[in-house]
Amino acid sequence: xxxxxxxxxxxxxxxxxxxxxxxxxxxxxxxxxxxxxxxxxxxxxxxxxxxxxxxxxxxxxxxxxxxxxxxxxxxxxxxxxxxxxxxxxxxxxxxxxxxxxxxxxxxxxxxxxxxxxxxxxxxxxxxxxxxxxxxxxxxxxxxxxxxxxxxxxxxxxxxxxxxxxxxxxxxxxxxxxxxxxxxxxxxxxxxxxxxxxxxxxxxxxxxxxxxxxxxxxxxxxxxxxxxxxxxxxxxxxxxxxxxxxxxxxxxxxxxxxxx
Length: 259
Hints:
Layout: H1 3-13, E1 15-19, H2 26-35, E2 40-44, H3 50-60, E3 65-69, H4 76-83, H5 91-97, E4 101-103, H6 110-116, E5 121-125, H7 129-138, E6 142-146, H8 148-151, H9 154-163, E7 170-173, H10 181-186, E8 191-195, H11 196-200, H12 204-209, H13 213-234, H14 245-252
Parallel strand pairs: 1-2, 1-8, 2-3, 3-4, 4-5, 5-6, 6-7, 7-8
């Protein structure tokens, strides 16, 4: 899967479910994700079986774009975390396992872009406009803002957008419940990420002990329907359904680094 194909799958639905460490059966959940018509998923590297899950997901669902999330680059911080008994896979390891895209809360550094920007979609964690500009200059495809409510919610992005020439390709995670989606789509967010806890809401705890795939499918379909409705109202001119990242970049004016 090429970088642009991966990005097209992420943008197609605009929703990336996140596999975290819980008691839900991860590959069973991914089967439901695929049935629901979602074409991209993240697997958090906080999950102790992240590498095997990435490899298993690519083996069982080869057309699914699989991302490795919560990544830490090589350095003292990753060394420290690993030494505390919470091993975090390295970027080279997740790529070898089959990851199609790379995601981090923290900004990636230059060498990661040099090595992987041409072959993997990169969703770079940023917290400021300056970090966003640097990430795009280095080759990021989407800019990940976490816990946007702490920044001011949709109003933050509405205020930031004109000052950055309406060019930032926003991706938001953290508390993205279905009822919040319209406000963020109106603020020109291109895609969102959310764990199954937010998708399932009140059913989340019960399904960990008694997994019912039909309930997850209903929740995923409802989530995507809410996102689709908001896109039709506020982003109807953007051809997300084409899965063509370059076409999305042209229509939206967003710097997706695909041309």
